[in-house]
Design brief:
Blueprint lengths: L1 H47 L2 H14 L4 H13 L3 H7 L9 H10 L11 H8 L4 H4 L2 H9 L12 H17 L2
Length: 179
C-alpha cells in the first residue's frame, strides 16, 4: 500500500512539472507574439497616419523589451513624423541609422547634457533611454558617443583642479569600457 501511494505521488509531481513546462513555453510564445503583433500594429498605425496610437503602443513595448532595436527605430520614426526631433534622437541615439546628427544634438540640448552637473553620466543616459545595458543597443557609432560622453560640458565652464581630475578619470574609464 505504501509503495503505491508513493508511486501515485511521483506520477502527480511529474505531471505537474510537465504541465508547468508546457505553461511556461506557452507564456514565452505569447510574449514573443505580443512583441511581434505589437510592432505590426504600430507599423499599421504609422502607415494609417495615427502617430499618437503607434507611439503609445511602441513606448509600452520598449519598456517591456528595452533591447529590441526594431522597436526603438519605429519609435524614433513615430516621433520624427510627429515633428519632435529631440525625442526621435532619444530613441535612436546609440544606433547610426536610427537618428540623424541634428536629432542627436536636439536630444542632448533638450536633456541638458552640457549643463547637467559636472558631466553627463552613463547612469543618466541609461535612465533616459530606459535600458540597463547600453552596450546591447549601441553600434560602433553609439560606442563612440558613449566614449565621448564624459567630455561633454558647458562651453563657458572651467574646471577646478578637483573637477579636472574627476573628468580625467571619467574619460579614462569611458575609454577603457567602450572600446
Amino acid at each position: 500500500m505504501v509503495g503505491s501511494w508513493r508511486l501515485r505521488r511521483a506520477r502527480s509531481v511529474r505531471r505537474r512539472r510537465r504541465h508547468l513546462r508546457r505553461y511556461l513555453s506557452l507564456v514565452a510564445k505569447a510574449r514573443q507574439d505580443r512583441r511581434v503583433n505589437g510592432a505590426e500594429h504600430a507599423r499599421t498605425d504609422l502607415e494609417a497616419g495615427d502617430v499618437r496610437r503607434a507611439r503609445e503602443r511602441l513606448k509600452s513595448l520598449v519598456v517591456t523589451y528595452p533591447e529590441d532595436l526594431e522597436l526603438r527605430r519605429l519609435l524614433a520614426e513615430a516621433y520624427r513624423r510627429d515633428g519632435q526631433p529631440a525625442e526621435a534622437g532619444r530613441w535612436g541615439y546609440l544606433v547610426a541609422g536610427h537618428a540623424s546628427d541634428h536629432e542627436r544634438r536636439c536630444f542632448e540640448r533638450h536633456n541638458a547634457f552640457a549643463s547637467y552637473g559636472p558631466r553627463a553620466t552613463g547612469a543618466r543616459l541609461r535612465k533616459l533611454l530606459r535600458c540597463d545595458d547600453l552596450a546591447a543597443i549601441a553600434d560602433p557609432v553609439g560606442r563612440a558617443l558613449l566614449r565621448d560622453l564624459p567630455r561633454k560640458r558647458p562651453v563657458g565652464r572651467r574646471d577646478g583642479p578637483v573637477e579636472a581630475v574627476g573628468r580625467r578619470l571619467a574619460i579614462w574609464r569611458a575609454r577603457s569600457r567602450w572600446r
